[in-house]
Amino acid sequence: MRDDSRLPTSPGFWRSPLRGPWFTSVLGLVLLVGITVLFVTGLVSYAAYNPDLSPVNDKTPDKGILGFYLFAWPTDPHWLYRVNQGVHVTLGVTLIPVLLAKLWSVVPKLFVLPPARSLAHALERISLLLLVGGGLFEFTTGVLNVQLDYVFPGSFYPLHFYGAWVFFAAFVAHAVLKVPAAVRNLRRLRAEEPVSSQESAPAPERELVSPRPDPATVSRRGALWFVGGGSLLLFATTAGQNFDGPLRRTALLAPHGGPDPGSGPNGFQINKTAAYAGITAPETDEDAWRLVVTGRTGTLRLSRAQLGELPLHSAALPIACVEGWSTSDQWWRGVRLRDLAALVGHDDDPPDVFVESLQRRGAFRHAALRANQVADPRSLLALYVNGEPLTPDHGYPARVIVPAAPGVLNTKWVARMTFGETR
Q1: Contact, 380 vs 336, CB < 8 A?
Q2: Are 9 and 152 in contact (CB under 8 A)?
Q3: pTM listed for this prediction
Q4: Of 340, 348, 358, 402, which is least surrounded by CB within 10 A?
């Protein structure tokens, strides 16, 4: 008889004694919880952009029924987006070793012949293809975006959004089929059991067990500790991006994981610099710059000095970015957005506002804010931060700061604000 053990379609090709229903079941149940949290926090993050408010906020305009869950984004608690996105990104990076180990544990099933033994088996294989492909796609695009070196063809927002729905649909279908068996495997089998005893599992699970395993060099429990150690290492080198001070220096794999830039009152994290945005000194010169405010009663043009003569208020708010990094609360001081709305005729009920920036390059040169965000007394057109004027990289001459909003909606280098319009 011809020995075909050198082909991946042969069970004899896969020799690791670690593979088996117990090992795969443990990894699968960890991913069941982790990926569910990732999916929910990802949807919440998308809702935070208020995509139904304005086309400029919506990076997936053809979402259709996939936007059924969207809701008006709140301003309380003020750290909501910071926590949500920190969990989403940090958990996603932490789960990478678990995902790779899970794919390794089931790789023999990807080569099983015939590819479809029945209609039910064919559907399972299709869901598995979408599950594996979707998982690799989502984690890859997510990591590329987090590292600020996104090179995948196409815009990150629609690719990641639609990819998440395809991946999670396959994930749910797979979980419905496999979770009962995984729970049974954990109850019936133990990590220390030899491969021969695990061959008594049902036929689908037996496909993971090598008929001629190599000698074991590590136990299954030891392999899980190895995977867990990898996840812990990634957590330790990513989570610090959510904190200021010494902890941020531990975020070696995060895009803003080094020490806070500069020092002094403006020495905290920056996503887009003035140079990157194409901001030049002449257009932000205090004598030349004017804020154009339009509303019910007409248009005003206000210099920075005139804004400084209006009632100024303070709010302690963080900056939180979609890439997962955030700052602690910074002390902002400026004019309330609702007071600016009142200057142009919106005294009692502040409306939505359309904000335009001097920014020339990059996304979110314009952004819309909901009426509840405008009305919040902590929402400011900030002129100062931590007791000093804004620096150019932090949005001088003026920037928007809104509680619980994604960083890109806290528009820097504001040039015009149109109340009652979101375009």
Answers
A1: yes
A2: no
A3: 0.91
A4: 348
The answer to whether 18 and 107 have CB atoms below 8 angstroms apart is no
What's the CATH architecture for 274-419?
Alpha-Beta Complex (3.90)
CA distances from 281 to 31, 41, 288, 395 (A): 50, 39, 10, 12
Q: What's the chain's length in residues?
A: 423
Measured between its terminal Cα atoms, the distance across the chain in Å is 73
**Interatomic CA distance for residues 341 and 349, integer angstroms:** 9
Domain boundaries of the chain, sorted by first residue: 11-236, 274-419
CA 133 – CA 404 distance, rounded (Å): 33
- Residue 68 to residues 35, 39, 63, 81, 85: CA-CA distances in angstroms? 21, 15, 9, 20, 21
Instruction: Give the ranges where 115-265 is alpha helix by DSSP (H).
Output: 119-146, 156-188, 195-198, 203-206, 220-236
Q: What is the pLDDT of residues 230-261, one digit of tens each?
A: 999 999 999 988 887 788 888 887 766 555 66
CA 372, CA 75: separation in Å to the nearest integer? 8
